[in-house]
Please model this.
Amino acid sequence: MSTHYENPRIYDFSNTNRTFNLDVNVYTCGSEACEPDHAYGPTVRSGYMIYFVLAGKGTYTVHDHQYALKKGQGFLIEPHTLIHFEADHDDPWTYLWVGFSGRSADKYIAGTSLTSDAPLFDFTPESKTLAAARGVIAGSNHKENRNLIMTGKLFEFLYQLATDYPQRTRTAAELTRRAGRVRAVLHFPKLQQPHHRRQPCGDRAHRPHLPASPVHQAGRPLAPGLPQAVPHRPGRPAPARNRLPHPSRRPRGWV
Model:
């Protein structure tokens, strides 16, 4: 682990040991009072980052869309996504951030309404999510068991994030469109065919690769001089009249 105080306007904590908890871990957190026009990127990050704008203004660009932000707004950065953000010239922003990664990080973010297509959120000074983010940053100042306390604070932050910004539910219009698609599938002509209806056992079209044996042609003469087959129910022994005659009793030419 390493904590940097390169600039009195910046508090930047970076975690170089990400194996303490493979599920999810803090890999960076901090705060910064930016200079006018201070920019970061274009670049990509290896984990998720949540930014809170505490004062001033700036812009955030992702997927070629630029968002203007001000005090009381925040934004999400997703891993391996090209991003760029920049402080305003006249009123540069001050922000704090929490960055985390791990094999379950995707799952925790999926429980919120934040995505790279809808990365912005609003918060108040009394926000519990903001307080939890400050708790993560405060945990980075501990010298003993720092990984342990920061992991605990991170879980508290993720819980509060999912509570304050829960996963978005489908709107009535979206549910209506989905119901329409379901009805269209149910009324598709092919689904109306009685595909489960039984077919006669001797139907050549149903079993084109097998020749129709006389024994299975219920109701048809087996051969000259032989009795006619009698239909029977599946699972029961075939009637004696349907059984194959002894070879000595078969007429000449019978196959």
Remarks:
- Helices lie at 105-110, 128-139, 146-164, 172-186.
- The radius of gyration is 36 Å.
- The first strand starts at residue 2 and ends at 4.
- Confidence is low (pLDDT under 50) at residues 1-6, 184-208, 212-222.
